[in-house]
Amino acid sequence: YGETADADGQASFKALVGKKFEELAQQSPEGWAGQEESPYLQDALKIAYPTFSTSTLIDRANQAFHQWRKVDAAERAGILVESLERIKFRFFEIAYATMHTTGQGYMMAFQASGPHAADRALEAIAAGHEELQRFPAKALWDKPMGKYNLQINKEWRAVPKGISLVIGCSTFPTWNSVTGIYGSLVTGNSVIVKPHPGAILPIAIFVAEIQKVLVENNLDPNICQLAVDTFDKMITKELAEHKEVKLIDYTGNSAFGNYLEGLQGKTVFTEKTGVNSVILDSAEDIDKAVANLTFSVNLYSGQMCTAPQNFYVPKDGIKTPNGVVSFDEFAQKFVDSVNGLVDNPKAGPFVLGAVQNKKTLDRVADAENLPGKVWLKSRTFENPMFKKARIATPVVVEIDASKEDVFSKELFGPIALLIKTKDTDESIALAQKMAMAHGAISCAAYTTDANVREKIADEMSLAATPVSFNLTGGIYMNQNAAFSDFHVTGGNPSGNASFTNPEYVTKRFTWVGHREPVKA
Amino acid sequence: YGETADADGQASFKALVGKKFEELAQQSPEGWAGQEESPYLQDALKIAYPTFSTSTLIDRANQAFHQWRKVDAAERAGILVESLERIKFRFFEIAYATMHTTGQGYMMAFQASGPHAADRALEAIAAGHEELQRFPAKALWDKPMGKYNLQINKEWRAVPKGISLVIGCSTFPTWNSVTGIYGSLVTGNSVIVKPHPGAILPIAIFVAEIQKVLVENNLDPNICQLAVDTFDKMITKELAEHKEVKLIDYTGNSAFGNYLEGLQGKTVFTEKTGVNSVILDSAEDIDKAVANLTFSVNLYSGQMCTAPQNFYVPKDGIKTPNGVVSFDEFAQKFVDSVNGLVDNPKAGPFVLGAVQNKKTLDRVADAENLPGKVWLKSRTFENPMFKKARIATPVVVEIDASKEDVFSKELFGPIALLIKTKDTDESIALAQKMAMAHGAISCAAYTTDANVREKIADEMSLAATPVSFNLTGGIYMNQNAAFSDFHVTGGNPSGNASFTNPEYVTKRFTWVGHREPVKA
Predict the structure, then answer these.
(1) What pLDDT sits at residue B501?
(2) ipTM of the assembly?
(3) Nearest residue of B to residue A261 by CA position?
(4) Domain B5-135+161-272+497-510 carries which CATH code?
């Protein structure tokens, strides 16, 4: 990226703060608004974005749709790839924008919002382009009928659905939104991007770059519009319920996701919440396992959809080559490990980042009142670079397996529950049940027994939950590699927003075949 | 098929009538029932099928599922192809079974229920097998991390959804059901086939043959169960609402289809009703066009989901090389042509077949009371082979384009509405509107103008309706070729049961990926 890329990106970000965001090509704003706040500074960013009424957004999207759908599929893909080339030069700026809206640490903000998001966008373009080529544009159908041949010219068109609405979330404003945006655009739909009012800037930069490339190609920039709203006047429902909106992509809480899925006549992709499990049966090196899980719990203060929450530990402990580690020994090792990471000034502030939403602090505080032994209370510490940062370290609580109501819901944030089970079979059964009933996006398991491993792999497969086995060292259960880690593939209530699945793009258009006899 | 195949098939069919159907391998029937009636004889077939309670069906399907899902995908496909090989020897028997349950003519009954249904089943097997191979079973992920390489073994499993329910219809008991049955089976689901109580035998023969091949392979025959019910005690809702049923395939009326689509937590494929249009703008040879449309209206007495209903004719007539054919001239040509076909003893009885449901006769009678000129009344005639056959010839009524409420619903049966429009633009707009609002499965258009042709192709594409242009001679708008005519691809309210679309099989299973670091 060049030696000065980081400093330049930071400077560019700072230059945007406190001003109108004037990069969009959407004409005649009907207002200006913006309520973003930095979790690191606990202060408003004071960036104002152009705002538009729902009817203006829909009218423009409709008009742009009929232009865009007629652009050749390969040309559409080319334009979208070009936008990613441009966005590459703004990765650092996007990283700072992400830090100061989501609270992510610098490394994660750079990776997730920049190159990883662009990877996912590129894969959506590729998947869409591939599916658009699945059937030939035309063919001659020639059927011998005895005395003559029946000859029919057949043609097949990939017809986009119409207007696509992409609803962003507050924690991963680009990573979770770009697949829907690029997936809908490459298949010929026009897109309205409705970011979370708390995390607009990162995706606004993406949309601005897309619009610039559209304009350069003499196309209507409203093919991809940004639709900003404010906490006090959200326009999401108005947009989602509009009859012209045919496609909806959403990341966020399950209640709103379920409402969207219930709307008639829409194709809806969701990534909702889940209850992620860790199954501890046996381990080659329990300390390395604990260290790995510690990182996963602390990473971005547990605000990832893939963060672990329920740790199932048998009451008789975890088998290791050096003997059984009892439940209490494991709990103590985990507490010590969390404290070690949090108190390491070279790690803690960067791994935990900041807490995006004030409500998460309340949830963490409430966790101390759960019915079980509190092994570790949440606390705060001073981030040397951002003294006002909103910080909460993990709370660790022991819960008996019989108290299912306590752990059968997502407790978003740095909250770890150590659930004491009868044995590993009960651990597996509970993890599967949680995933089937409440969704799950990730799962970790530690076992040195091949039969137990296969049982976990099989039972969690039935709950459509990917399992990371025996992770130690530099890879964590909450990390997803683009292209090869299949994320939210649709088999449990957490949603169906897997861009690795062909359905994710094929549902954005319809095949229609026409036919006509060959003229004699 | 051999010289005696037809006679043998007819004899086999006759041997089944009036008896218990004992070919199924489903053990310990809880009862015997069957209320099929031949529309040709207007008499009960008196075939009794084993019946089972919903809980028995579900328990057996659940148990069979866990056996079937572990059978290798290629072996599953092999078993299913083998079942089609066996069914081939019963095509004539199935043809007679289809005639005497649906009322189809002999030719259609043979083609649609036998070879065409088997074609579709084969394509479902092929599509499923292909999609199951889309991702590799395993891969080594090797990421350079600077000083070392991060190496992860990744594996991907195609996990079937569980129990699949396939709900049959009374008019095409195999053609419409086999894609769901074979699509679900090849992807590893267990299937419960719930036929329409009026049309069981054709699909019962399919299920029996599948069960025989399963048993020969030492597999549980309950992998594919037949679930027979009676008109007075239908079990469809009980099955559909059961929490263990994850997949539903349905063909039939829109009200029940919409109810099924509204069930939470199910993947539902439907083929519902539609309002099919014919747009008449201009024609090279109007008489050939009329002859072609006449056949389409009469074929199986308009009881195909692809039959035309709304004929949009401009008030100023249809342009031809020999001058304009006025609205009234067209209407008269159409009436004469229908009479010609119906009164031709070598054509009428075979093309029209018989009427499956008594209610269709009422609907045809009511059509004479629609607000417009009745150009042709429905009547009956004697089928020389089946003197008691239930027969109704087409009714033709002129309706003004302003009376949208009259023609904006499906009038199932031999009912043709000649709708007088301002011009072709209004015809196109109405055809598109009907398809978007009420669904459409087919459309025909006659035009010699390339611009009008493209406008129709484009506007009807947006309503996801395939258009047959300028058909004359031996191909008709209501016929669908397997493999190349895309049927109900999901873009309008008629449903989404297109087995030509990869989604039709990919939604029957979920991809799940597990991973584990390579041991050092």
Answers:
(1) 79
(2) 0.92
(3) B264
(4) 3.40.605.10
